[in-house]
Amino acid sequence: MTVRKVRTAAVATAAGLALSLLALPVTPAGAAPAQPAADPQALAATASDQAAAAGLDHLRKGADEAFRRLGTTPGDAGLFYSSYERTYRGLKVVGGDAVVVADGAGRVRDTAAAETAPIGVETKAAFDAARAASVARTQLPTVDSVSAPELVVLAGSAPKLAYEVVVAGRTAKAPSNLHVFVDAATGAVLDQRDDVKADASESTASTASTAVAGTGNSYYVGNVSIDTTGSGSSFSMRDPGRTGLSCGREGGSVFTGTDNAWGSGSGTDLETACVDTLFSVQTEWNMLRDWLGRNGINGSGGGYPASVGLNDVNAYWNGSSTHFGHSQDNRRQATSMDVVGHEFGHGIFQTTPGGAGGGNENGGMNESTGDIFGALTEAYANNAKDTPDYQVGEGVNLVGQGPIRYMYNPSLVGDPNCYSSSIPSTEVHAAAGPQNHWFYLLAEGSAAAGKPASPTCNNSTVTGIGIQKAGKIFYNGLLKKTSSWNHKAARKATLEAALALYPGSCTEFNAVKAAWSAVSVTAASGEPAGCTARTVN
Q1: DSSP 388-446
Q2: Active-site residues: which are they?
Q3: pLDDT confidence of 210, banded at 50, 70, 90?
Q4: Secondary structure element (H or E) that encloses residue 73, with its range
Q5: Fewer CB atoms near the end CB (10 Å): N or C, the chain?
Q6: CA 296 – CA 348 distance, rounded (Å)
Q7: Which of 255, 226, 221 is nearest to 240 (CA)?
Q8: 3-class DSSP state for residue 514?
Q9: Any idea what the Cα angle at residue 127 is, between residues 124 and 133, rounded to 5°?
C-alpha cells in the first residue's frame, strides 16, 4: 500500500435546485437568496471522485482503467474515506483498489492505493470457463455449489487475466466459501481467498412489528436486556432497530416465543446462546456508534444474522453471517462477548476499504481486528460478570486450555509478540500477534498499574493512552486500508490518524509510534516524521 499526503485547492461544487411542497419565504428586494448548507459528505465524495478520475498522485491509472466508488465512510476529525474499485477495460481488478480521504469542505487530504504493477493484459480468455469451474471445484474436498466463472484482472507484481470462481463447501476441518482465481490462459490456480474466518485455528424477510425490550438470562453476562421484535404474544430474536441483526438455530429459523423472556442461563441451551450473542453484538453496535462514529457493523446502518448450535469446536464468519459452535467438552456455547465481537469484527474488516484482502499477513491483521473489536466491546460493556480484559475466549475455554490468545503477551500460547519477515508465511491466527500486542501497548502500556505487564521487543517502556483513544486511532487507520494491507501500512495510517484526531497534542502520536516500534514494526516510507501540525492549503 502506498499513501501520500496531497495538497489541493478547495474543490468547487455546483448548487442544485430542489422542489418543495412547503411555501418558501419571500426574499427582500435586493437581498441574495439564502443557499442551503452544503452536505459535507457529498462535498468530500465529489472531491474524491474528481481525484480518482484524474488519477491523482498514487491513484495512477492507465488509459484503459477507471475507478468506481463503492462507498464513503465518515471518520473523525471531519474526514471522509471513499473506497474505489479499479476496472480495466470494464473488468473488475482484484487488488487494484484505492482510498481517497477528503474533508467536509471538499479538499482532498490523502490517497492510498493497493500495490500493483501497470496493467496491460489481453481480455480474451484462452482457457474455457467451464474448465476453469472444474479446476476451482477441485480445491475443496466437499463442494456444495460452484459459481459461474467471472473474468477479472488479478493485480499484483505481474497482473494476469483470470477467472474468479466461488466454491462453497467444506475443507477437511471447517466450512468454506472459497474464491479461486484460475489463470484464463493456462488454467493454473493463481490465488485463493476464503470468506470464512474461523475464531480458532483448531476445529473439529421479516414483517413489520413492534420494537420491544426483552429480558435475557444469559450464560456469560447474567440477566440482561436485549432488543427484540414482537407484539401481543408473538416475539422473535430479531433486532427491530439494527437492520440485519438476528439470532437463531444453525440451519434453522430465528428463535421465537410467546413471551419476551429468553434463555435459561444454561451453557448447553441454544436460546441462552442467542441471548449472549444478541446482547454482545448490540453492545458492539452501540460501541461503534458512541466511541467510533461508525453506523452499524457494515458502516452504512446494517448488520448480519447469527446462528448458534454449530456442531463444531469453533466459531466463524462466512462473509455474510456469523456461526457459533461449542467448547470441546460440549458444556458451553462459543458465544462469549469477545468471541461474538471478534466474529462480527471480521464483518467490519470486510466492509472497510480494501475488503478482506488476501495472504497470511493481511489475514493475521484481519484476525487481530476481530480481537481488537472484541476487547473494545468488553470495555464498552464493562459488565461485572464478564469484566474487560485482553484475553480472547477465556470464558469459553474452547479446547480446555484457557484463552486462545493473549493480546498483552501473544507468546503465552506460542504466537509471535514481534513482527518479523516470517509473519507473511505464519498461520493467520498466530500472525495476529504483533498487531494485538501493539494495540495493548497503545491502550494500556507495557507496565500499567493493575494491568498485565507486556514485554516489548526492544526493551522499551511504553505508556498507554486508554482503550477508547486507542480504538479511535486504530479504526481511523483502518479506514485507509487497501487489499494489500500490511503492518507497515497500518503503522503509517495510524500515525496519520493520531495527528488528525489529536492535532493539539503529541502524546497520542508518540504513543502510536512507540507501540509499533515496541513490536518491531519499523518506519514506513513517507510516514509522518514527528508530531507537527500539518495544514492543507
Answers
A1: --SEESTTTTTTSSS-SEESS-GGGGT--SS--TTGGGS-TTGGGHHHHHHHHHHHHBS
A2: 343, 429
A3: low
A4: strand 65-74
A5: C
A6: 9
A7: 226
A8: helix
A9: 115
Cell matching residue 21: 411542497
b/e per residue, 98-115, with b = 16+ CB within 10 A? bbbbbbbebbbbbbbbbb
Cβ neighbours, 10 Å, residue 525: 9
CB 367 within 8 A of CB 361: no
Burial 394-410 (b: 16+ CB within 10 A, else e): bbbbbbeeebbbbbbbb
Q: Average pLDDT over the chain, rounded to whole?
A: 90
Helix/strand/coil for 469: helix
- Closest to 428 measured CA to CA, from 491, 368, 518, 488: 368
Label the pairing between strands 223-231 and 189-194: unpaired
Assess whether pLDDT exceeds 50 at residue 366: yes
| Residue whose grid cell is 489481453 | 122
Q: What is the pLDDT of residue 2?
A: 40
Answer whether 2-10+40-113 and 129-194 agree in fold.
yes
AA identity, residue 428: V
Rounded Cα distance, 176 and 193, in Å: 10
Instruction: Say which CATH class 2-10+40-113 falls into.
Output: alpha beta
Sheet holding 197-198, edge to edge: 197-198, 315-317, 322-324, 305-308, 246-249
> What ranges do the domains of the chain cover?
2-10+40-113, 129-194
Residue 336 banded pLDDT, cuts 50, 70, 90? very high
Tell me if residue 475 falls in helix, strand or coil. helix
Q: Please check whether residue 83 is in contact with residue 97, taking contact to mean a CB–CB distance below 8 angstroms.
A: yes
Cβ 264 vs Cβ 219: under 8 Å:
no
pLDDT band at 534 (very low <50, low <70, confident <90, very high): low
DSSP 196-223: -EESSS----PPP--EEEEEEE-SSS-E
| Residue 272, C-beta contacts closer than 8 angstroms, at least 6 positions apart | 217, 218, 219, 262, 263, 264, 265, 266, 333
Residue that the C-alpha cell 414482537 belongs to: 230
C-alpha 435/C-alpha 41 separation (Å) is 31
Q: Residue 237 and residue 273: Cα distance in Å, rounded?
A: 12
Of 31-40, 73-82, 139-148, least confident by mean pLDDT is 31-40
Residues facing residue 160 across a β-bridge: 154
Residue 198 predicted with pLDDT over 70: yes
Q: Residue 374 to residues 218, 343, 405: CA-CA distances in angstroms?
A: 18, 8, 12
Pairing of strands 305-308, 322-324: parallel
